[in-house]
Amino acid sequence: MNRSRLVLLFWAVVLAAPIFVVSLSWLTPQWSLLQHFVDTLLSDMLVNTLVLLVGVAVGAGILGTGLAWLVTLCDFPGRRWFEWLFFLPFVLPAYVVAFVYLGLFDFAGPIQSFLREMTSFKGIDVRTGSASVILVFTLVFYPYVYMLARIGFQSQRYTFIEAGQTLGASSFKIFWKVSLPLARPSIVAGITLALMETLSDFGVVSIFNYDTFTTVIYSAWEDYRSVEVAAQVASLLVLFSFLLIFAERYSRGRAKFYTDQCLVEPPYRLKGWQALLASVVSILVVTLAFALPVTQLLIWAWQNFAVEWGGHYWNLIWNSLLLGVMAAVMAVAVALLLLSIKYRKRERSRTDSLLLGVASMGYALPGSVMAIGLLFVFMMIDRGMQHWFGIEALLLVSGGLGVLLYAYLSRFIAVALGPVEGAFESVQPSYVEAAQTMGAGRFTIFRRVYLPLVLPGAAVAFLMVAVDVMKELPATYLLRPYGWDTLAIQVYELAAEGLYERAALPSLALIAISLLILWGVKRIEYRR
Amino acid sequence: MLAVKDLSISLGERQVLQNFVMEMPRGEIVALLGQSGSGKTTVLRAIAGLQCAQSGEVHLNQTCVLCQGECLVPPQKRGIGMVFQDYALFPHMTVEQNILFGISSWGKAERQQRLAELMELIRLPQEMVKRYPHELSGGQQQRVALARALAPRPGLILLDEPFSSLDADTRYALVVEMREVLKSEGVSAILVTHDLREADLMADRIGTMQSGAVQSWQAVH
What is the ipTM of this complex? Predict the structure, then answer.
């Protein structure tokens, strides 16, 4: 085995270690507790989880794909603005959108109160059923589908559409038979991301009292203090995520989906009522998914500023920013390292791809389970060291930020690998070979050829990891060193007590920082 | 069958076609020969309906499909086949699915018969119908692209430098073969190329283009 492969193997093992630990929990099964869950909660939660997943897959899938198709293949007034406005809900933490929507649309909220006063409307309980939860997840997670589907549509050739037209196919047939199937791998990858986020969510489902798989995991840990059962149930989740990914890969068969070209201009120019409809739908989506929740947050924050704001906020902002940036820098650096190994030769090795797959498995692990898994491992090591060597290492204390950053890296490396790999794919092997024939060494090729070409992808990866980490709740909550409270934790603690109006301020701060990072990344992309 | 009158097209600042004129009867094969940038591809795109114009007319079977620069009939309704420079074979569809794409409304038996007919015409073995485009050689992809364009029995086929990515040996053999296919189907065709020999082998008549207009016409066959 050569040195590069060893480096890859090392990182794959390090990054996937939490998954192995969680799977090892099956070595010590607690059948009685498992049986208790099977008897009481499991069947309902299984149904709930499945309904939720199907709903989010359909909702986020249709919305994300539709919007991506619209801005990539059609020209209409405001298209260039909507192209990035559609992306904005990504910076909103799901639990924030959940409590804002609940505040607005709940029985006691302003909308229902207004309707009851003005009409004969009796009011409804938005917490019953799964529609509200599915709607919130759809609005929050569609950007994952949108982002990837857009890349899928952009990488198609202009002539595919023209060929379809000259063969007499209608615009709908071309969409259904050509554009959509060609973008399918990207769309499915986006839906998979959205579903994994849904599976690992705890905030939204607890705000809506909607019991899912995660509820069982929390219950096992919180009520019964059983790391093992929590981990066992979580490993089922992981298994489910793998099935999802595998099914998509398998369904591709021998067909090819990517071409070496990209759409520069949208082929369809919408006019008249079609253009109007496209603009109206776009405005509606941006309003519901971004403008409405942010406006409500602004109103609440304004009303409660005096009560909520204090000097400690600077600390919270600094902590959030620092954690996000540190984790993002680490994730992007590791992603660049691993992918430069994979793409060092013209022929791709299956082993390299497999190792990268192993390295990105952590994404399937809910943050809470990862935290529990890590706590478990470090406790074991601490106990072992004390028992065998008489040393009080107190890794969890002395490890400090390291443990938390490791959890972030393991969980979010997949998020960084995606965009960076997309960028590596666009580097033609001949560029590298041309550089080699001009006498450039490995490092020079990386610095002068790969890095400039890969930078936009790396910038996107940086943004996604930084924003994801700042929004992240469970792992941060469980693993943060003393005094390292973040904005997300402040939001959670206030919202958990029902103080939604006060939670608006830290939520807005979080959103503002994320938007700032988004703006910075856009500038990097724009300058290129 | 086809008449183009005073067609003028600008793309941005650049005048690509200037009062372009051409006529062709049914069954004729015409080649437009010219350097890159001479406007030959733009002529094809305007005839196919993929490009509208500033002024001029395109008549197909006595119907004005592009009048005073405006596209009146969309590409879907013109009954014209086109073979693209990059073939534009749908990569996620097999040879069979590609060829049948334009005739999906036909009855099953009719479709299968047309497929068998075309496979024979382009001299590809039947077992290749289940292959994907990337599993074919450049020449084979080119033949499939032609078969796909021919499938709905168009009156006119537009060939946009379809041989440019093939090696010389394959290219000229295929040009001759393609002429035979087109003649046996009785379909009119316009070939756009910058290769004189290709035009010579393929066409009944060659128009030499320069700066957006035909400078001279020359009968070949």
Answer: 0.82
